[in-house]
Amino acid sequence: MKRKYSLEFCVPFLLVFILLQVGWFIYKLVIMPDEGCHKELTLSVCTILVLLALLWIFTSKMSRQNKILEENNRKLSELDRMKTEFLANVSHELRTPLTVIMGYSELLEERLSKEEDETNLKFVQTVHRKSEDLLSLINDLIDFSRIESGKLELRLSLFTLEEVISETVEELATNVQKKGHNVQVNYGSTPLWLLADRGKIKQIAVNLLQNAIKYTPFNGHITVRTYMQGDMCCFEVEDDGVGIPEDEIKHIYQPFKQADSSYNKKYEGFGLGLAITKSLVQSHNGSIQVRSEPGKGSLFIVSLPREKNV
Which residue ranges traverse the bilayer (predicted)? Predict the structure, then answer.
């Protein structure tokens, strides 16, 4: 890269020198001819020819380097496409047998609960619970591969943000209870109507609330707010959890990246949740912001365009 930049800087300087030499040559030959300047004119012509030769050499090298860079970029793009297809194919192949495992474990769970076999019931419940976790990870991989390949489709419908938030809080109530969290929901006075993909908006809310539950220690507090700000519908998810260091905030939306990225990380997951969330928000022409401080929790703010024709 350093060599490429040096060539790019050399070419303009050579052009300047050539123009100066040509200008001087024309000046001495046409405007101010002098009988004793033949040697100077000859030297000027030679200098111009040498500079032109150097210019040709440098531009040829730059052209070759650009072709190499283009080829490398093409190969990288192809590798990236193959990676995305591999993730999508593997995820789909894993989801099919996993669904079968979950179905049979659910049947076993019902049968063992009737037989009051608590020991085996606990084993089967663990299998079913971990299968659900694995399915969630696989679904994240599938969503990520669709976003990466540009195959994300939006099915627009009219709905209120409040009803999506209410469903999300209700569905995640079990997870909240397991950690003893106190979840408070504050709605604004005016219903917030959206013309958007209801499933995708719900996925955004689920991802943010799940993160708040995951990264908040037992008996923590989580607050969800909705309000209108100008032409935007906003909702916030605030927790008093572990928080995010300032130098990590800029990386949290990167795929396969978590705030705790150490080898023996405490929290499970691929680190795709926030990357998917940001892409979904942007696909709706919205924005997402985060404010956080280690040990004091995090605040995520999502803004989405409000549907005015309601």
Answer: 7-29, 41-59
